[in-house]
Amino acid sequence: MAALQESSVAKLLGAGRSGKVFLVESQSGAIARKIFYPDTIANIIHYFFFGSPNPYIWNKDAIACAFYRRKILGELVQFWFGDRLTVTDALSTKWNQEFKAYQIDTEFIKGRHVSLLQPCSRERAIELPALVRGIMLPLQKKLIEAGLDGLVWQAGKGTPTALNNFLLASDTSNQPVFVWIDLESGVPALFPINIIALFSFYLPKTLKYKRAMFDDVDNYKLKRYIHNYQVELVANIGSQKYQEVLGWVDRLEYHQDKWKSMRRVDRSIQYQLKKGAIDEQQARWYSEHFLLWYTRGFWNIFQKIINQLLIQLPITLVHKIINIPYLQFFYNLWRFILSQRYRINIVRNYVARRIERWQNRKHLINEEADSLFQSLEREKSSEYLTDFGVHLGIKLFVKIIEYVLVPLLYFVGLINELVL
Q1: Given 173, 202, 212, 350, which residue has the most CB atoms within 10 angstroms?
Q2: Alpha-carbon distance 96 to 102, whole Å?
Q3: Which superkingdom heads the taxonomic lineage of this protein's source (predicted)?
Q4: Contact between 56 and 67 (Cβ < 8 Å)
């Protein structure tokens, strides 16, 4: 897991719950560098279940597991799918001092996400079914069969957002070629959109592992699977590579046991040590006096809450209220109420920005985007919708006057029954 030589040329490719991915030019070529970082929502979830942020940020055994999982799955996926699916190969891992977090370098793959399902994408309508039915669903079954239970989260079981974990590398043939680019989770596998998957798979697996499942691997089951399919695997990847896979599985088991067996308090202490908040001596002392560590943690949380709610929040609100351009705001509001052309421009500009965003993400090709822009220019329903929206907005003020203000005036004696 030797680190690649650093390069100052970096371009942000994307970001998710677990980290940011950069395109880095090195002497050996382009690589994708994923630097793990603490997303706020993910942080709260990790603290609740594990007592510390995402372990890929600070735990060297966790990042080693990510490295060996990619190595193992690179060979297994080839065995399962041939050339239809590949996994971006892990090249190295390293502590990034600038971000104070671990990073993993993988090979860079040129590709795009599958096309959006919309009227202009008839020629590319096959892409999404090819990914979901031809790759993701069979992949989930293979992963479970091999004991790679935690990886089904990134493979999309019960969570459609996992579509972004796959790229379409080639669509020139009748058989699309996909690449699995993101194998590291951002949150524990307990929040699927599909509630059936939660109760039929994720909760039972949580009981099996006796913890919230987070990229967990049943190493005994994985070893048994590899031994059961030894003949087929050797025929597919060769005997030398087969022996390498067995070695990777042993290393994965070693690092996962070290990572998963850490005490909750030690996870919190080691995270603060990695971030430079405490030194080695303090870490050892707090590990032996964990009640004082928790006292320190609760006191820090209390201070942050007081600071945010009683100091920062009022200052922020006052600053925002003072800096509101009131004249411009009321002028635009008046234009929105009175001018149909102004309302239509707002709606069309919003839709145009959304089309451009999907085009930049390559969910839409240039021809499809041009077709949608032309349809937007010809479209007339937005004129009705914006006018109806204004009608509804005015209706709210009318009802407030009718049911609140007028009865109030009557009750205080400013108007009589006839006026009411």
Answers
A1: 202
A2: 6
A3: Bacteria
A4: no
* Cα 404 from Cα 420, distance rounded (Å): 12
| Confidence check: pLDDT of 4 > 50 | no
Q: Is the overall model pTM greater than 0.85, yes or no?
A: no
Asked whether residue 387 falls in the same domain as residue 375, the answer is no
| CA end-to-end span of the chain | 81
For residues 153 and 140, give the distance between their C-alpha atoms in angstroms, rounded to a whole number: 9
Confidence of residue 396 (pLDDT cuts 50, 70, 90): confident
Gap between the Cα atoms of 26 and 4, Å rounded: 8
From start to end of 72-176, where are the E strands? 85-87, 90-96, 101-107, 166-170
Looking at the DSSP bridge assignments, the partners of residue 401 are none
Listed in sequence order, the residues at least 6 apart from 402 whose beta carbon sits closer than 8 Å to its beta carbon are none
Cα-Cα-Cα-Cα dihedral sign, residues 312, 315, 318, 322: negative
Angular region, 24: left φ>0, alpha ψ -120 to 50, beta rest: beta
- How many C-beta neighbours within 10 Å does residue 26 have? 16
In angstroms, the CA 38 to CA 44 distance is 10
Question: CA 54 → CA 51, 116, 191, 248, 340, distances in Å?
Answer: 10, 31, 16, 23, 50
The answer to whether residues 198 and 263 belong to one domain is yes
Instruction: Clarify whether residues 115 and 215 are in a common domain.
Output: yes
- Assign 208 a pLDDT band (cuts: 50, 70, 90): very high
pLDDT band at 380 (very low <50, low <70, confident <90, very high): low
Same structural domain for residues 351 and 410?
A: no
Average pLDDT along the chain: 87
* Total Cβ atoms within 10 A of residue 198: 17
